[in-house]
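Bumping with the actual sequence this time:
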Amino acid sequence: MRNFDYHNPTKVVFGKGTISRLKNLVPPRGKIMLVTGGESIRKNGVHDQVMDALKKREVVEFSGISPNPEYDVLMQAVDMVKKEEPSFLLAVGGGSIMDGTKFIAAASKYTAGDPWEICSKLAKVTDALPLGVVVTLPATGSETNNIGVVSRKTEEKKIVFHADKLFPKFAVMDPEVTFSLPDKQVRNGVVDAFIHVLEQYLTYPVQAPLQDRQAEAVLLTLLEVGPKTLAQKQDYNARAGFMWCANQALNGLLKCGVPTDFATHRIGHELTVHYGLAHGEAIAVVLCWLLRHQRQNKQEKLLQYARRIWMIEDKDEELAVNRAIAETECFFNEMGMPTRLTDYDIDPAEAAETVRKGLERDQAKLGERGLIGPVEAADIVRASV
């Protein structure tokens, strides 16, 4: 097992009716800036619950954060922060809202230059506005990590940033708010969480048995509750299991002491920027093809995955690995998730060239061993037919 540091300061408030506890979670004084997306939280009553909990507080709101939060819109929110001078930010929504709010928190205090440097140069964030979150769409685990992703259309980039100052102070997680989610968003969330786990698990062994079994527990639970979340939309226990799995998938615990491979996400970001695929959709059309391409480098963990998750006992190890990858693709398909670019009428050859150019521009070397360069990434995308 590798050396690691682990610290997660976010307080989790989980369960039915927990939005009402906001009044005791936000700081007792100062103006609060609510950061939201579209109209869904008004239609499903979440906005009313939040405002009722904060009815004795001064609240201003910035709405309109879109999926794959756009830099120019976020900078409008930064301007609002400088005008209104809130002392606390409250994100209400899914991963995009949370990520966008993290950027707003950092950019509002950034004085060293252009705030885009927080993403483009991973400039050090020495100060940030404090923030909390109310989760309405489980998927990214952003509610208890210090990571965000921001897009900038003018540069055709979607970039990950992180800073210790960006851990939320608290995360309110009420599974009941997910009852009204469209099937597509639930599907995307389950698949996103599943892939988050695989990118920390399907690398190579480093004698970390506890981390392996923690990852396997999340995977097995998602296989169990994922279909239930679609079949029984108001099954509280299934939704609670899904919400908690999505959190555990990327709260930092699974990556402690182990190598990680987020190549699927990096390639998926290119597809999102250029073709408009939702995040979960983009990574779903990459993952299985990447596993097939990298099967020799991941053989030991892929075989473990086949045995422990899919209960495949074939003595032929190559057959067992092939079956495990196929079972993964079948699970995504059963959730209603396409796994091929052609399912979206996207030409894999054209997309491969687009991805190659994007990774060449950034001189990217991806994967747990840095063996996936622009050419290899293009080969992976080209196979998604």
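The tokens above came from a reply further down the thread. The first helix runs from residue 22 to 25.
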